[in-house]
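Sequence of tRNA (guanine-N(1)-)-methyltransferase (Rhizobium leguminosarum bv. trifolii).
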Amino acid sequence: MAFRASVLTLYPEMFPGHLGFSLAGKAMERGQWSLDAVQIRDFATDKHRTVDDTPAGGGAGMVLKPDVLARAIDSTAENDTRPRLLMSPRGRPLTQERVRELASGDGVIIVCGRFEGVDQRVIEARGLEEVSIGDYVLSGGEPAALIVLDAIIRILPGVMGNDLSGLHESFEGGLLEHPHYTRPQAWEGWEIPSILTSGNHGAIEKWRHQEAVRLTRERRPDLLEKAKTEKNG
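Predicted 3D structure, token representation.
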């Protein structure tokens, strides 16, 4: 069964964006995944097609209305068991583990927030899982949704030319990825590490693991601490 992605947005023209190119685009052409971009504004009932209103209790900005968004979700997700994600800077950080969980299912529904946010009632009533791609704020959830879909689609079976590629990269096994090199052997006075041209595959794997640990310790010590805690837990 092909992976089905439904995105609820005020800007459906932003999709599929970069996902229409390269591996993801070719996979879409082959029917390995599909994308349906739903215009939230189509579910407004007033003549101005209003989708937002001022925050209860006062404050700056506007908030997406729960009734309009709920109708959009219901039209897409009726009798649908796909996970419902809401892109939000206050959500749980996206991890490679969660990406693999999502990729193992039959699809995902993603709600793209705008303005100051989404009425909390629709988040709870429609079981939206808030997901963050980092500790920063975007103008809307669309770029974040594209990133989530990119991460998922690339590891769907048959999308990458070599499925092993997805098993030896950053965050797989809790480490950052080791350095990569290719020909020419010498470039501007820099040499490929001799171990990589030795033909000793056991030594090469050991070197790669050591380098992955080194880079993770230097750049993301939190990942090593997390792995240590999980092991001891």
